[in-house]
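Sorry to interrupt, but I need a hand with the structure work. I would like you to pick a protein and set down its sequence and fold. Please put the record directly below this note.
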Amino acid sequence: MAGQGKPLPQEYFSGDTFQHFQRIAKDAGYKPHWLKLQHEIRDEVIAIAAIHATDTATVLESRIEKLNEKVFEYNKSCPAPMQKESVSVSNIEAAIDWWK
């Protein structure tokens, strides 16, 4: 029926549809996949750095290899300015700062 209901806000008719989706999703508490990955990677980098002094490099290398798979997936899905380097035993301390 004509004239029924509330009129839609003017912002629905202007701008980018994707931006509208992002705002609505953010308001609903949705987190993008790359943001979840960022938190997982940060926690793993901190865990690896904590055992770095006591463990052998061979054990760390396998964990870092799995971590770098997540870093690669993160870099494919996050905005370009937020992409990060892969992690290695030699740069584990610097990686803590990158992923904070």
Notes: The first helix runs from residue 17 to 27. The chain has a mean pLDDT of 84. DSSP finds four helices and no strands in the chain.
